[in-house]
Structures are given as structure tokens and as C-alpha cells.
Amino acid sequence: MEEESSSSSIHNHLAPIAIKGYKFFNSETGANVLIKGIAYYPRPNDGDLDMNNMDFFTEKYRHIWERDIPQFQELGVNSIRLYSVDPSNDHSAFMCALNAAGIYAVVELASGHHPKSAILSSEAPDCYPKHLKIRGEEIMREFSMYSNTLAFSAGNEVNHAVPIGKKPQWNAPCLKKFVRDMRAYSRNCDGMRHVPVGLIMADSDRDANTLYYNCQMDDDDDDDLDHAEWYGLNTYVYCNANHTSFDQAGGFKLLLDSFESYNYSIPVLLTEFGCLSKSFATIDSYQGQRSFNQAEWLGLPKVQNSFAGGFVFEYSIESSNARTPFPFKEFGPQNYGVGYLYPENCDDVKIMCEYNRTPSFYNLKKAYASAEAEHLIMDTFDPGEYRIGRTQCPSHFPPLSSFQWAADRQMSARCPRQSGLAFTCPNPQDTGVMRVDRGVTYLNTFLVLAALVSTTYFVGNYVAGIMSPSRKKNALPSELCKEGQEVTDDVTSEESRVFNPPRHTYSSLDSASDL
Asked: In this structure, what are the phi and psi dihedrals at residue 486, rounded to the nearest 5 degrees?
């Protein structure tokens, strides 16, 4: 199935994405942007890296993401979704390589593996650990400097991290408060590029969750930060391969009808989609190859009226979660990747992994190629009088002001200094491979500053605190998130099992039955 990539586009600079109403726009050209993305977690088949919540997006793992970025280009995606990053690491080489390929990234502020790094299953307000505030702010410091950071996600499926039988309001106020704190940090850091902060829900209790995270709970005109700036939904509602037209896809139509009824004023992304089913075709001996009609339907005007794009789940089959033998030709209820890594025992340390595309890779490529953004311009786009302002808050959710928050007693991370407000990627080499020598970049910055600043103390602090390639000063060490017990993955709604959602630690889902 392997073919040579035909993509050769090289970008020196990606304009930041801006939001107006419920749409994304290119901040420089003003053109509407339809998000055509894929979830990315390049977990090898074996070895020490075969685990969840690894930060693969650093110089140390260049061999991994340099292998995969050309595949993104061939697939035709303009965005990827990252589930876990370490704020103490330097991600400039990775982000610049994405920039050169014309690709944006949605970055998770939490991590689903350790209690202090995510919203917990405890009842509010205890579900918001104070160290999560610092972790989120440090990630914002690191990634806001890159123009191709599309958005931040404050949490992934926290509605599935509650005890059995409890309603969303059990821990939802913690996530809403975390969103508010992250937006406040962005607003208070003068000069730091504002990257929109949103969140991602599993598709259960759809009405209540959707309305809650776009409403303003407290009647305070001076504090309008406790609503999300975008909303993500992990949803698996198109599972019958025999339904090939939009009008036949009842689950997807019902999803669209729901969001049309909300008159939502912020962008909505389908942050995981692409249901598995045995009804999909066998192609080249690979069973259950998804057609990805839903990806094509993202280009329909009536769909774009509610959804600003989405992310297919996922780039590569995770061998540890697969329930079928390598090379995964048999249908498996967790074989979500549009490709897989080989050989079977590759660990990306001693035995390097290669990527093999499955037929579904080409189905997705064709579908995304058919989906185009509406021809809208930001300056003239009018969301309409019914698509502005906040939604009505559900009555059974308590206001944030009714709690005492430990995070309020936690000092925020320092705002980035002037030199850390933006990162300029070097021009790609003729080979198209992005090489970032951060030391050279910092040296050039230092020379400019030295000419402008005469205070030796300032320069000394700059060199010691900001120019260090490790950039670990004031970063939240990953060890801070390792105390206590891991977050449990209890699923609270049988609705989430109907369409066989993926099983992976970082989406807080447990096993699902076969279709």
C-alpha cells in the first residue's frame, strides 16, 4: 500500500488562527479555515516508549515526528491533536517542522495519567488540584509563542471521570474554573499571544454539557472568562457503512440537529470522530476500512454552520490496545489508526518503527480533499443575532462563586519576558526538513537586546532564566504530577458504549463491546 508522498509544500510562516463567532479564520488573509485534522500519538509497538502520556514532540524524538509529518501532508490534514506534553521540554523543533508543513496543533493542558495533572473524579471543588493551574500556565507559556498553535484544550472527557451514577455537575465546575483561570492568565500576560482556550467532552449528557460550558454562571459583567472559547466533542455516531449519503446517516444528522438547536456562539470541533464497524469494506485483505464519509460532509455548508471541522481518531493503531494480531488485517474494536507501525517489535529506540498506510488512509485523504471551507471573509462575516452571546446556564449546575478553590491560593506562573513572546522559525532547508538550532536563535536575540538594554542585571537574568535551551526555570516538573494514585477511568454513561468508542487512557474511556 505504500506510495511516495506527493506533497512538497513548504511554509515559512503560518498565520495564527483567529475566531469570529463560531468560525475559525486566517488572521492575516481573513479567509475562513475548516479544520481537517487527525489525532496524533505515535506510540511504538514495544519497549519503554510503549506507554500513554509520553511527550514525543521534542528534539529527543525527532526521528519519530520527522517520519510522520510527511504522512500528515500526504493525508491532507491542516491540524493535529496532541494529548500530552511536558511543559518543561522544548518543543520548538517540532512546532517549526509542523509550521514548515503547513500544520497547526491543538495542545492539551492536562494529562490523563496523574492526579495533579488533570481534573479529577472527586466532587467539586476538590477535583481541581492547584498544581494543574501551574501546569496549564506553563504549557501556555511554551506554546503560545508558536504561530501554529491553534488552540488549547483544558480537559479531555472529564465527564467520564466521575463515579458511576453521578451527574456532570459532580466535577464540571472544576473544568469550568480551570478554563477561567487559563483565560485569565492569558489576558494578564501583556504581549503574550492569545491562543483560544476550550475543552473536549465525551458525547454523553450532550445538551447539559454543551450549554454549560458556553454560559456565564456568575452575574458579574466584569468577569466574562468562565466560558470556553471553543468546544470539542469526541463523538462516534456514524457507524453503518451501508449508509453512504448524509440523509441516511441518522446519528450524525441527530448530532447536527442538536447543535443547530443550541444557536452556539463559539466554534465547535469534532475532536474525535470515525466510528469502527464490521460493516465497512474489506480492502486488500484489511477488514472494516472506514469510508470517512463524515470527513467529506464537514465541507457541506449546513454542517459548517454548526461545526468548524474535526479530528479523525487516529493516526496509528496502538498495538498495546489492539485486540487483533499484527499486522491488524482482522477487524478489531480498537484498531482506529489509518496506518500502523512496523516491524511488530519496533520500539523506536533500538528498532526503528516505520509507518504503513492502510486503505482507510487513502479513503480519508480523498474525503478531506473533497471538504472545503466556505468562501467567507472574517471582516464581512456576520454570525447573526441568534449566534452571539452566552447560552442559558442549566439550572442544576452550581455557580463557581459557591466554592472555595485551592487554585486561587496558588500563585500563577510568571508571564513570559519580551523575548519569549514569539518564536521565529528558521527557513526550511532545501530538503524541506526543519532544523532548529535554538542556541543560534537565542544568540541573535541576545545581541539585539544587548544593544538596547544597558542593565547588566537584566541581561544576566535573561541569559540564566530564558536563554537556557532546556527552558526549565519555573516549569512544573513532571514529578509534581506523580504523587498519589492515578486517575480512574470509570465510564458513567452507557450511551458512550453504543458506538464503540476507543479505549485509551488519555481519553478516560474503558473497554467497549464489539459491534
From this structure: -75, 160
Residue 150: name the closest of 37, 296, 55 by CA.
37
**Which residues are registered as beta bridge partners of 198?**
153
User: What are the DSSP calls for 30-51, one per residue?
Assistant: -BEE-EEEEEE----SSSTT-S
Please give the Cα distance from 491 to 507 (Å, whole number): 11
Opening angle at CA 332, ends 327 and 337, nearest 5: 65
Which neighbouring-strand residues pair with 18?
Answer: 25
pLDDT digits (tens, 9 = 90+) for 190-206: 989 999 999 999 999 99
- Give the residue-averaged pLDDT of 250-254: 94
Angle between helices 172-188 and 130-143 (to 10 degrees): 40
Query: Is residue 235 within 8 Å of residue 255, measured between CB atoms?
Result: yes
Query: How far, in Å, CA of 305 to CA of 256, rounded?
Result: 9
Which phi and psi angles does 278 have, rounded to 5°? -65, -15
362-379 burial, b at 16+ Cβ within 10 Å, e below that, comes to bbbbebbeebebeebebe
Mean pLDDT estimate for the chain: 84
**CA dist., res. 313 & res. 115, Å (int):** 25
